[in-house]
Amino acid sequence: MDKILLLIGAISLIGFIIWWFFGKSSNKQTVAVATSADHQEVEVLVNGGYTPNTVVLQQGTPATIVFERKDPSGCFNEVVFPDFGIHETLPVRKKHAVNIDTATKGEFRYSCGMNMFHGKVIIK
Amino acid sequence: MTTKNRFVISLVLSLPMLIEMIARPLTGWMLPGHSWTMFALTTGVMAVSAWPFMRTAWVAFRNHNANMDTLIAIGTSTAYIYSIYAMLYHQPVFFEVAAFVVTFILLGQTLEEKMKAQTSSAIEKLLGLQAKDAEVARDGQIIRMPLSEIVVGDIVHVKPGQKIAVDGRVIEGSSTVNEAMVTGESMPVVKKPGDTVIGATINQTGMLMLEATKVGSNTLLSQIIAMVQHAQSSRAPIQKTVDAISNIFVPTVLIVAIITFVVWYAIIDVSTATALLYSVAVIIIACPCALGLATPTALMVGVGRGAKLGILIKNGEVLEAASNIQTVVFDKTGTITNGNPIVTDIIGDEKAVLTIAATLEHSSEHPIATAILKKATTLGIKTGDSRDFHAIEGKGVAATIAGKPSFAGNIKLLTDHKLEIQLEQEMRRLQDEAKTVVIVGSDHKAIGLIAIQDTPKETAESAIAQLKAQNYRTVMMTGDNHGVAQAIADAVGIDEVLADIAPSDKADHVKQLQQHSKVAFVGDGINDAPALAAANLGIAMGSGTDIAIESGGIVLVKNDVRDVVTALALSQKTFGRIKLNLFWAFIYNIIGIPVAAGVFTGFGITLSPELAGLAMALSSLSVVISSLLLSRTKLN
């Protein structure tokens, strides 16, 4: 009887893991706010992931993503945008601005230094 | 709190338990207040050293993310919480598992942080090369001013032993300059008026006065730094597979751990504690870190080492491309040869021929034009005025001089003009001597010939020999006629010659060669940009400060053909190291997880969670060390 209960418990736990991590994750998307006619800015919170994890920028307008790192975990030491050649160290509990070249349209992924956490920049 | 402090705290708290573990089987010595003491010590470890893991794991979980911290947090807290339960019910506890695992992992991370800092040392070294200030002549005075205030056109004074602050051109004085730090060239370079100098290099023997030509982000050093930074943050295409795996890695490991527990507890029927230990070992040994570190660390070290040698690698894709190259195509002028040809013979009326040729060529920067102009200058011939100047692609140039249509170019130009028998014989003779012949004409008639010879670089022969020894097919491409090209090719040992090719057709010929093999094209970044782009791998050779960094996948700062060999070797070694790192990271997980799950218990092979923690720490470390070793591998 014990074992059957254990089995049911294990199966539901596995089900939960699949649903929670592989299910349709809630994609939070934020459109950058224009701070002036020729600049746009968006804030991304770094805490166990990047929130929001998708940022939308207008093509052609110089953009800044301000990362606020609350998470001291070594995983978030760096933020890497392979397409833009950006590899910067994020200080803990401080805001760090990263300038993005918005010349070309497209979807650009970024990640932490070890490529475990991901975010996305959409330029349109 | 730093990783190092967290490690020290957890080490100090774990030590008594470690001593007990060793001493107990030998002497029977036990910690006073056995389980309670262990509980207290481990609680300290969990609360101080392991807390950041828990925190990140929890926030990541809320964001539907999971990472290495998730595994560590779940693994250690499972052992910890179960032990509290066991302690209350007077069953065997294993607090030390949680404490040791945390200690080992923090040890690994501390070392890893140190080593990782070393992998990115190249950029700091490059940044450190920058001069801080310079002596600049302004308003008749020499003022010492910071680098940022120097503008193009400033006259900069550099004393012997001082660093040259910006890129410039020597206007007065002569000296030798050590350029090793930027170009990788170990021999000092002689500089005299008219020569270009590179910022951040060191003036050695004489006083130099130079005019600043490039400042700020336009200097060669700034461009090198930007390129290296870009390359180090890029990813090799092979990384895509890794990304796909690491996205599902952690949740999959958790599922495997649950299955492990169920199988041991419910099917094989061992105690809860034993089943739990297997399960914890699975969680702890799984190491996504090694997978994550494999590519970036190798890229950092490989690209950084290249930068020191004056070999700039654009990105990770280039490394992969360089690993498949079978044919290396060289542009002739300036790549295989010195690129500063000299006039050797003039047939016809020397003055008339040279005057027309020099007038036609005086605005051109083509090496042949330079040679003609140099000759004209030494003979004191002045250039005249011309009208309707136009270049005829792949043939030559034409213009109206003194009311007469005039031209200078190769034999292809002669479809519309005639060449006398005597001149034709002379041309054959000169071509047989491997000289390039320019036909000069006026009023629809050839009036003379100018023979020009370019000599192969001293290093070309050994570079080609090394490439051939590594089974590359070598091809030389040139706009020169076949005779000249073949003579140069024979001198340096090139396999195949493609002559009489107009600059605009080079890219098409590269594409033709690509039908049979993967092609690397080596040329200067300015004239050969289309061919460099068309090839599987474009290697742009620089000279002075004018390197066209955008044009090549690999940019060679110094003008030495042997660097082609080194660049290919470095790219292959780096790419090979990425593959090796990934292979080990995968193998480690593929073997480690089943062992930890107890699959091989029947053969007496098991893995305790503590050992799993140690192995996990070592796996990340081994990947970083393997990458660091790249800076020591032999390249020739």
Describe this structure in words.
The complex is a heterodimer of chains A (124) and B (636). Chain A has 1 helix and 11 strands. Chain A is an alpha/beta fold and 124 residues long. Chain A has a single domain, classed as Immunoglobulin-like. In chain A, strands 1-5-11-10-7-8 form a 6-stranded mixed β-sheet, with no helix packed on it. In chain A, strand 2 and strand 3 form a beta hairpin. The longest helix of chain A has 21 residues. Chain B has 636 residues and is of the alpha+beta class. Chain B has 4 domains: 236 residues, no CATH class; 97 residues, Distorted Sandwich (Calcium-transporting ATPase, cytoplasmic transduction domain A); 130 residues, 3-Layer(aba) Sandwich (Rossmann fold); 112 residues, 3-Layer(aba) Sandwich (Calcium-transporting ATPase, cytoplasmic domain N), CATH 3.40.1110. Chain B is built from 22 helices and 22 strands. In chain B, the strands form 4 sheets. In chain B, strands 10-22-21-20-11-18-19 form a 7-stranded mixed β-sheet, with helices on both faces. Chain B has a 6-stranded antiparallel β-sheet with strand order 2-1-3-9-4-7, with no helix packed on it. In chain B, strands 12-17-16-15-14-13 form a 6-stranded antiparallel β-sheet. In chain B, helix 17 runs parallel beside helix 21. Chain B is elongated, with a radius of gyration of 34 Å. The two termini of chain B are 45 Å apart. The mean pLDDT of chain B is 86. The chains are: A alpha/beta (124), B alpha+beta (636).
